[in-house]
Amino acid sequence: MRVLLLGGTAEARALAALLHPRVEVISSLAGRVPDPALPAGAVRVGGFGGVAGLREWLVDNGITAVVDATHPFAAGITANATTACAGLSLPHLVLHRPPWDAGGALQVSSDGEAADVVADKGFSRIFLTTGRSGVAAFRDSPSWFLIRVVTAPDAASLPRDHELVLSRGPYRYDDERALMRRHGIEVVVTKNSGGAMTRAKLQAAQSLGIDVVMIDRPALPAAVRTVGTVDEAAAWVLSRGSGEA
Fold it and tell me: How far is CA 154 from CA 8, 134, 135, 136, 157, in A?
């Protein structure tokens, strides 16, 4: 059995650690983050070249199953993997961490809609945690931004008034609460990433009465098989190896 694990997340690293060395796992990282945390087992870095390139790579490398444990907003690779695996009749699973309960958050469908809400509500001090790709939507805003990202965005995409924090979770509730109070934050803008690593910002915002604008996840491809936990994904992989359906 040879499994391609599309990774880059904490769940992907945990799954690789559970399976290795019982199962031959090749973890694939997109390569967008410098000095990434590496999983157990073999690792490849970089894109595949779309559906055709991925299909060719799967065949050339004798892959017998694919687990997609990428970020919930990595819609492109999820769509490509679904199409490639369907074309090869290859077993395919998506490890899709449960979303956060939006609670009283203002729910929007895109970075652009989030920027419009921030402007319409007149927020002047914003904690922006949507990742480097989401910053450009706020470029022309006159507000002040605390921007937390793993990798610095292009300078041309940054709003005029901002403070940039390069950081990687997990984050603690007390630290998040102190950070928001220190900077006088009025609203937190985030993607509905789910998981425990960055949930503390939502808890801190709620305790301080700070508004939250939350960007909804993209829809998964139709009919894709999903699980919500690392243990469930590991059980699925091991069942394939034992010949179970």
Answer: 21, 11, 9, 9, 6
pLDDT digits 0-9 by tens, 178-235: 999 999 999 999 999 998 889 999 999 999 999 999 999 999 999 899 999 999 999 9
CA neighbor of 78 nearest in space, from 136, 7, 26, 128: 7
Cα separation, 27 vs 43, in Å, equals: 5
| Residues, the chain | 245
CA angle 104, 110, 116 (to 5 degrees): 75
User: Exposure pattern of 161-183 as b/e (b: 16+ CB <10 Å)?
Assistant: ebebeeeebebeeeebbebbeee
CB atoms near residue 241 (< 10 Å): 14
Tokens standing for 26? 């090749």
Which structural domains are found in the chain, ordered by start?
A: 2-97+218-241 (3.40.50.720), 106-215 (3.40.50.720)
228 burial (CB, 10 Å; 0-12 / 13-18 / 19+) is: middle
Contact in structure between 176 and 204 (CB atoms under 8 Å): yes
DSSP letters of 96-126?
-PPPPP-TT-EEESSHHHHHHHHHHHT--EE
Q: Is the pTM of this model over 0.70?
A: yes
pLDDT in tens, 111-131: 999 999 999 999 999 999 999
